[in-house]
Write a structure and sequence with these properties.
Elements: H1 3-18, E1 21-26, E2 29-34, H2 45-62
């Protein structure tokens, strides 16, 4: 992991601590989203998002309803 990624994550974490929660309205439902960053995490945010997308894609590909 590069120092640049560490600096980006620290900056994101600092910004998140200022804005502790965001509220979104989707349809008629309101969602409150909070963010938590682990200081011990070994995975940068960009890598985590890529992993989540890849895992979601694999779930969709393996779903029998999509065949």
């Amino acid at each position: 992991m590069s120092d640049n990624n560490n600096n980006n994550n620290e900056m994101i974490a600092q910004n998140a601590s200022v804005n502790k929660a965001k509220t979104y309205k989707i349809g008629n439902t309101w969602y409150t989203v909070t963010v938590h960053f682990s200081k011990t995490s070994k995975e940068v945010l960009e890598d985590k998002i890529k992993r989540l997308i890849k895992n979601d894609d694999e779930l969709i590909d393996n779903d029998p309803q999509n065949k």
